[in-house]
Sequence to fold (1183 residues):
Amino acid sequence: MRAQDDITNVEKLKKQPTICSFCGCGCGLYFFPEGFLVPAQNHPISRGKLCLRGWSYADLRFTPKRLKAPLVRRNGKLEETSWDETIHIAGEALKSLRDKYGGEAIGVLGSARASVEENFTLHQLARKALRTKNIDSFYRLGFLPSEKFSFPDLEGAEQIILLACDVAERHAQAASFVIGALSRGAFLYVIDPRLPQMGKLASIHIQPSPFELLKEAEDFIENLDVRESTYLLYSSEITLYGWAYEAQRVIEKAVTKGIKPLFLCDYANQKGMVEAGIHPQGGLSFYEMLDEARKGNIKALVILCDNPPERFPELFREAREKLEFLLVIDPLRSEAVEMADVAIPGTFFFEKEGSVINAEGRRQGLHPTVPPTLERNEIDTLLALGAELGAHIPYPSGELVEMERKEWKPEIAPTPQNVPNPDYPFTLLLDPSYIWSGTAMAQATFIFKRESNIILSDFPDGFVNINSEDAKELKIRDRAIVKIETPLGSLSLPAYTTLRAGRGVLLFPLYLWEKVSKALGGVEIDRSLGMPIFKPLPARIEEE
Amino acid sequence: MKQGLIFLPTLLKVKEIKPEIPAVATFRLPKPDGFIHKAGQFLEVSLFGKGEVPISISSPPSYEDILLTIRSTGYVTSAIHSLKEGDALGIRGPLGNSFPYEEYKGWDILFVGGGIGLAPLRSLLWEMLYHREDFGRIILLYGARTPADLLYPWQYEEYEKRGVEILLTVDRGDEKWRGNVGVVTTLFEKIKIEPERTVAYVCGPGIMIRFAMRDLVEKMGIAPSNCIATLERHMKCGVGKCGHCVIAEKYVCIDGPVFRYPEIKMLERYDDPW
Amino acid sequence: MAILAYRKIRKENLMELLQKIASEEELIAPVEMFGGEALFQPVKDVRDITFNYVNTLFPPKQFLLPRFEKILTYKKEGEEFKVEEIIEAPRRTIFGIRPCDVEGIRYTEHFYSGKMFNREDLADPHFMARRNNLTIISVACLNPAPTCFCVCCDGGPFLEKGFDLQLTDLEEVWLCEVGSQKGMALVERFSPLFEEAEEKEIQRRKKLEEEVLERFGPYPAFSGATLRNITRGDIPRQVWESLGERCIVCGGWQFLCPLCFCYTVVDIGNEEEGYRARVWDSCHYEGYSRLAGGPNPRKGRDRRRERCIFHKFSWQYVERMGRHGCVGCGRCVITCMGYVHMPQTVWEIRSAFREEKYKKEAKVR
Fold:
């Protein structure tokens, strides 16, 4: 097998590129064991360019947050244990829980930080060994099914529509393609209630009220004089403005007009993960798993490369207290690892053999570029766990995975949310721009950690963005505590005045949604999308 | 500092930690062999596992120990605050230039301080008090946010005894406060000076330096080159390598932290020195 | 320093020389990657070296100032700390480095040796140890890439100083110019491999230099006017704002620029044991000049860009550093995500001064 030859010959390995594991763009880069990387110049997406996250990816090589050895909780403390013993302990624990409560009491969480093959193996483990249908991932958040496309096509675009997506902040490589097209004379239309960086470069920036975004977008597309190469970029953010079926109608409309839609995945292997079978298959979705665990109905969780506490700190803590067994497989020593019963180290993208699928649907190979530091990788661990549980799981060879890969379309059904709609002057909206702030991945880097923590250290308890002009009119000082009232409840937060929020819009960062939704009467999750049912809310604001 | 090894800290045991005002404490460290500093210089204080921060020395050169007044604002400084007496603290330095001292012997001295900015001035103030006969009038104008934020209140009596005219001000007073309320520049109207023989040393938050310097020159009539300030920047290395402290072409860690007003005015064309 | 001597070396002899160097010390040379790019890598077998490249995307500054470098270790032993400064400086030879990168190393050395401040007591021990152990065998450029503009920046395509040996491809042989005593020692040590160069070969190199100048691409020359405007600080705010709007804040320019050398310091480990390391940093990042507690003198992207260009192109720096801060390697042209790289920036500054609407603005300031 090629992988075997490669691992022994480090000199040769250097010549293989690997893929960045942050956002869904999927940039190619050369990674070196000395802890530095070079963007691949001939790679169709990176083209010698990387964003801040991409450059920081090299920091993971020497991160102090690395989980180096298997850990087993004994007398309340995590202790280093041998690989065989750890896997045996984990296998026994899962087996007894499965036999006692049945497979339905076990939840399995996959990850967009793991390769397609690993997710496939995890799926097999869940179905064949743990006999559970509760398979999902926090990284599925906001995943919408989409057609294949190609980023380099954007270079020849004549018209580009950015529909409610802040590409400069979240998909920098896509932003680079857009700016490249602009410099060649393309027209850029931005439809966004906020004022993202791209809004300033746009030929037309439509700032509709958040309630009317989808309708405005539909009208705009209807009336647009569509040229031969017109592209519509959108991301999971679109589902924050209305129901998924409404969003889908806008996209379908665009397609009938001859516009090519580009869906930007939020995470590196989000698409690959879903296609490898990590989505609810009649079982519980990720949020429901934690919720059921809190109620005591889920007894064990198996987490691969994920850190739910970064999104739902309190819910996860409550769930953890009721869980009888928590297994985490992760290269990072995250908060979830600190709470686990058994933690097994995993590998980063630059250490493993496998493949990932980016937003385009492009399947790209991963190659180990540094000498292995661990005895086993995730696939070995998962196969060994399967064996402990008495099930045969096939080795996830490239051919097998390709054969089993399935596109998945969630059933999108309207879920009515009855919100009284009084005539308040503002609209409260979730802003997913700071999606990486506080995540385990960001915390494991040096420079990116500093950059993403600026907002966290300035506003440790979150903030609400208000338009500077609005703030002036209402005499709200920057960083003053304000009280926001909505029909569902009220919350107090520091105000952060910027021009980022449009007139009449209040933005709240998505990474702290647990906090906001709690104040507003509890989180509800759209099962099919994994997005919170948090639609724009009418709001009032005043300084306390 | 060993010859050539400019990044190696010297480890010292903290002799005493004296809490000053909320979130500010003064750390007393023994002087290592051959340690000679000048007023206005700073140290890179390092705590292993946390990092390094630049801290100006608040003790005068003739004093027997090193005193560092540190405010807990960030990751490293808050960790330094959790130290106990006897714990080790690394220092590198003294680094940077210093306040002009010899040049102004026989002059009247005007100190303008704001908030924690009194700490670097204290070093020079005490050095002048040790050689009181060399200087004319010494005036200290000092402002803080609230009366509880006034730094070194226990020293004011000693200053007055040694012939320092002190004027205090706060942004927001409380029921006990009888003094001036307002920013430090409001004190300028209350003093009479001879501008041609007065030198002003200013230290505090950037915005305060900016307006104080402007008023000193425009309203008080002090020559711009006799207005001297220390600037604050995040110096990561302290030896002119890392580039974090640059203001236009000046490296605050080597060309500064002490600058005269004309220099700062020049930097303002290209960058924001405040 | 002028050229000390001229030699020539046959192509097969050069390979033999490099193989001998590789067996004694670390040889860094361009190697072809999987995707076809050439990158500088340690080479054991000279057959891996590629000659089919114009310039590598990454400058070899990585070998003098690594992206991630341990600078000291600490360990608590009983009550005391044991602290050691780690200086890692293997003997190295870089082969195939282009003149722009050689100029970059010279610039960086001027800064890290403390010469910029006339403070050689503050020389960086890590950088200087590696620099002193480094031999530079540069190769002059005969075919510039479309992104190259070194000819406008005193950065190539041929150099007069800064290298130990400079090779020029004269098809059948390589012409060697010896630029330093270190280079002279190398030539003398392996003297059987070298031959005296003839006058006609030296003339041929001069002719080649003139010919290369014709092959440069479309990127604009740096006129003195830009330098003058930046030095005076009278560039209209709108120019910086317009550049800032397109900046994605990736920092790639600073990482790839052979003349950029800022870093940040991180402690890795706990209070008892660990190490302190430095990591490359970029002045385009928001946290770069942010002070403890929140104030940031360069909060806007336009401010950060202005600062970066000022460092590269102001007379204040030219005076202290001996040259301006661009060698025209063209890497920023490739890596800039917002297409606001150095030539674009200069072009926009110049066109701003041609446009009437800004002229008034400039006068008001």
About this structure: The CA atoms of residues 320 and 507 of chain A lie 31 Å apart. The longest strand of chain A covers residues 489-498. Chain A touches chain C through 48 residues (CB under 8 Å). DSSP finds 20 helices and 23 strands in chain A.
